[in-house]
């Protein structure tokens, strides 16, 4: 009997649906888009998203949010390498601006392109 393995997109779609449901319930009281944007900019981080995406893998997942291994979530037994990017605005001067430039995250998108090509 051939055992069918779930694909990475099947896992991540399921995880993302749970995350979306969590935030829909958690922030259902917010009616103002600017307030919701402020919550996203200041009350949530890339590390929060990484943990939520990796949590269903439990002890199979390794989390590398800093350091020489640049993939945020690694699931060796499934051969999954997951890079998480949470793009948000930061306070700068009198307004808000992106903290990182495209040049700083381009390498991650190049890696993704190479992986799926």
Tag the structure with descriptive keywords.
4 helices; 117 residues; globular; three-stranded antiparallel beta sheet; alpha+beta
Descriptive notes:
The chain is an alpha+beta fold and about 120 residues long. The protein has a domain at about 10-85. Helix content is about 45%, strand content about 15%. A three-stranded antiparallel sheet has the order 1-2-3, with helices on one face. It has a two-stranded antiparallel ribbon with strand order 4-5. It is globular, with a radius of gyration of 17 Å. The two termini are about 30 Å apart.
> What percent of residues are in strands?
5-15%
Order of helices and strands: HHHEEEEEH
Low-pLDDT stretches: none
Distance between the termini: 31 Å
Radius of gyration, in angstroms, nearest whole number: 17 Å
| Shape assignment | globular
* Count of β-strands: 5
> Strands of the biggest beta sheet: in what spatial order?
1-2-3
Helix-strand makeup class = alpha+beta
Oligomer: single chain
What helical percentage do the residues reach? Answer: 40-55%
Tally of alpha and pi helices? 4
- Main β-sheet description: 3 strands, antiparallel
Q: What do the pLDDT scores average to?
A: 84
């Amino acid at each position: 009997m051939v055992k069918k393995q779930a694909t990475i997109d099947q896992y991540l779609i399921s995880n993302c649906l749970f995350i979306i449901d969590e935030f829909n319930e958690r922030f259902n009281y917010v009616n103002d888009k600017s307030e919701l944007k402020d919550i996203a900019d200041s009350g949530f981080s890339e590390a929060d998203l990484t943990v939520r995406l990796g949590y269903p893998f439990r002890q199979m997942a390794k989390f590398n949010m800093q350091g020489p291994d640049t993939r945020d979530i690694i699931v060796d037994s499934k051969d999954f390498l997951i890079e998480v990017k949470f793009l948000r605005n930061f306070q700068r001067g009198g307004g808000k601006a992106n903290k990182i430039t495209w040049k700083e995250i381009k390498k991650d998108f190049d890696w993704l392109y190479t992986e799926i090509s």
